[in-house]
Amino acid sequence: MTTQKRVLAVIMGGGRGTRLHPLTLERCKPAVPLAGKYRLVDIPISNCLNSDINRMFLLTQFQTASLHRHVQNTYHFDPFGGGFVDILSAEQTEKTSDWYQGTADAVRRNLVHFRSFPHDIVLILSGDQLYRMDFRKIVKQHIDHGADVTIAAIPFPVSKVEGLGLMQVNDDLSIVRFVEKPKDPALIRGLALSPKLEATLTPMAEKRCLASMGIYVFNRAVLAESLDNTMTDFGREIIPGLLGKKKLFVHMFEGYWEDIGTVRAFFDANLALAQPLPPFNFFDSRAPIYTQDRYLPASKLNHCDINHVVIGDGSILTDSSLKHCVLGIRSYIGEGSVLEDTIVMGSDYYETPEQLAANEAKGRPHLGVGRGCRVKGAIIDKNTRIGDGCNLNAEGKADGVYANGAVIVRDGVLVVPKNAILAPGTVV
Question: What's the pLDDT tens digit per position in 224-250?
Answer without folding.
Answer: 999 999 998 898 899 999 999 999 999
